[in-house]
Amino acid sequence: MNSNEPKSKIRTIIVDDESLARRGLNIRLEQFPDIELIAECKNGREALESIESLCPDLIFLDIQMPGIDGFEVVKRMQADHMPLVVFVTAFDQYAIDAFEVHAVDYVLKPIENERLATAIERVRSHLKQSDSDNQKKRLIDLITNITGHTPAKIDQMLETGEFEAPKYPEKIAIHDGGETTLVVASDIDWVEAAGDYMCIHAKEQVHVLRSTMKALENKLNPSSFQRIHRSTIVNLNKVEKVCSHINGEYHLILSGGARLKMSRSYRDKIKHII
């Protein structure tokens, strides 16, 4: 056998609610011969089931997911099933600094090949010298740094099952020249993408925000706002009627009269109201 070939495979799971993100990471991981992809999960529930049944060595875990997010997945993992975790994040610099000072790694979206290679190298190093208990401790340290809770508080929350929900801004700031308009998040009916801009429909007005869809989605509480199309986010509280359409698609009728198309691939995100 060639001495350069890896001696063992790193059994890996990808967890991300966006199919394109999972596909992109899958393709990038093909360049690493010691990475063996054993499952892809589209939400936290699937991730926990796969971790328990497959006992992976490594998971690439998206932080911002509807329902059970990345931090909640960490909280619910059992110590005897603790894989190494590389967080996939769109967080800003303050959070990235927190990742940097702990052993757990991250890759920032959009994922760059060079940064991914660094993360894989760190994974290889950790696998040689770490155990499950140490992994749990590192993850708790990381969450402590991100959330501001003390280690004792994190331990208590893990024991009791209590974990604070992420906080989302009550208002979205929209800058236009020298003016800033604050739009109350709960007033938003829906959002549609237009190139590098987001058109925010609220109270019969349209506000234009320079942003990516993912960045804006991260600011909106997923209990109320869900993506229903590659370029559309809807406030579920504004939905008055759901009409089935051809090819498994649906049309959502909002309280203000707007009619929005929902793609089949996003149907599971709001299946509780269909």
The CATH class label of the largest domain is Alpha Beta
Q: Describe the biggest sheet?
A: 5 strands, parallel
Tally of distinct domains: 2
Low-confidence stretches: 1-6
Average pLDDT, all residues: 80
First-last Cα distance: 56 Å
Q: Estimate the global geometry from the Cα principal axes.
A: globular
CATH topology of the largest domain: Rossmann fold
For the record, the CATH architecture of the largest domain stands as: 3-Layer(aba) Sandwich
What is the tally of helical segments?
8
Structure description:
- With 274 residues, the chain is of the alpha/beta class.
- The chain has 2 domains: 151 residues, Response regulator (Rossmann fold), CATH 3.40.50; 103 residues, Beta Barrel (OB fold (Dihydrolipoamide Acetyltransferase, E2P)).
- A 5-stranded parallel sheet has the order 2-1-3-4-5, sandwiched between helices. The protein has a 5-stranded antiparallel sheet with strand order 10-9-8-12-11, with helices on one face.
- Helix 2 packs parallel to helix 3.
- The longest helix is centred in the middle third of the chain and has 17 residues.
- The N terminus is likely disordered.
Concise overview:
The protein has eight helices and 15 strands.
Topology at a glance:
Elements: E1 10-15, H1 19-29, E2 35-41, H2 44-54, E3 58-62, H3 70-76, E4 84-89, H4 93-100, E5 105-108, H5 113-129, H6 132-147, H7 151-160, E6 171-176, E7 179-184, E8 188-194, E9 197-202, E10 205-210, H8 213-219, E11 225-229, E12 232-235, E13 239-244, E14 250-254, E15 259-262
Parallel strand pairs: 1-2, 1-3, 3-4, 4-5
Antiparallel strand pairs: 6-7, 8-9, 8-12, 9-10, 11-12, 13-14, 14-15
Helix pairs in contact: 2-3
